[in-house]
Amino acid sequence: MSARPERPHLFVRIAVVVVAAQLIWQLMGWLDGALFPGEELTTANHVVNALVVFVLAVPMVWAARRFLDRRPWGGLGLTGVREGWRPFLVGAAAWGLPGAAAIAVCLVLGWSSMGAAAPWAELVPRIALLAVLVLVFEAVPEELIFRGYLFRNLNAAMPAWLAVLAQAALFALFGSTLWVLSQGWGVLVERLPLFLVMGIVLGCVRVVTGNVWACVGFHLVFQTVAQTLLNSDYMQVQGVDAVTATAFLAPFVFGVPTAMLLTPSAGRWRRREPDPIAPEGRPR
C-alpha cells in the first residue's frame, strides 16, 4: 500500500482558505458593481451577492477539506439537520434572549421607540426573505469558513481557547480588509474591534456547543435583527444610539453565558482536539 502524502503545513492550509475567501468576496463585489452600477443595495443585489458567495464558498471549503486537510467533512462540526437543529436554536437564543431583553428595556424606559415602516402583512414576508438571504450570504459561508474550517484546523494544533483567539484575529483581518478596500482606511477603527469581538464570541459559542450550527443561529439572528432595525425601509426607530449601545451590546456580553445555560457541556477549553482521518483511511 502506498504511503499517504503528507498534508501541507497548517499555516499553508489556513492561508489558502483565507486568501480564497477574500477572492470570493472581492469577486462578489466586482460582479455587484458590474451588474448593478451606481445602485444602492436592493433585493436584487442581495440575492445575486448571496448566491455568488454561497455557491463559491461552500465548495471552496469542501475542496480545502478534501485536498488540503485530507480529512472527513464531518470533522468540521457542521452536522446534519437531526444533530444540528438543537445547537442552532441554542445559538439563536444566545443572541435573541439578551437582545430581546435589552430592546425591551430601551422601550420601557423610553430610551427609544420603534414602529413598522409598512403594514405587517407586507413586512413579515420581507423580513423572512431577509433572514434567508442573511443565512445564505453571511451566516452559513462565514461560519463554515471561520468557526468550521479554520477553528477545526487550529484546535487540532492548540487548545480551544487559543484557537478561539486565533480564528477571531483572522475573522477581524478578513472583515476589516473588505471594509477598508470598499470604504477606505477611515472605517478600520470601527470595524476591526467589531469583527474581533464578534469572532471571539462566536468562537466561544462554537466551543461551548461543539457545533457550527450554533454559530450560524447566533449570526443569523444578530444580522437579521440589526438589518431590520437599522433599515428605515423595515422599521422606524427613534433613539437608534440607545438601541445600538444596549440591544446590540448585551448579546455579546451575555450570549456565551446564555449558551452555557442551554448546553449540558461547558466546552473543552484547554484541550487540543485531534482531527482524525476517516475510518476507512480516506476523506469523505
Helical percentage = over 70%
Mean pLDDT: 92
Biggest beta sheet attributes: 2 strands, antiparallel
Distance between the termini: 19 Å
- The side-by-side strand order for the widest beta sheet comes to 1-2
Structural class label: mainly alpha
Attribute tags:
284 residues; mainly alpha; two-stranded antiparallel sheet; 2 strands; globular; disordered C terminus
Task: Describe what this molecule looks like in 3D.
The protein is mainly alpha-helical and 284 residues long. It has nine helices and two strands; from the N terminus they run αααβααααβαα. 38% of the residues are buried. The C terminus is likely disordered.
Task: Please give the structural blueprint.
Blueprint: H1 10-35, H2 43-69, H3 81-108, E1 113-116, H4 120-157, H5 160-183, H6 188-209, H7 212-229, E2 235-238, H8 240-246, H9 250-261
Helix pairs in contact: 1-2, 1-4, 1-5, 2-4, 3-7, 3-9, 4-5, 4-7, 5-6, 6-7, 6-9
Task: Write a short abstract of this structure.
With 284 residues, the protein is mainly α. 71% of the residues lie in helices and 3% in strands.
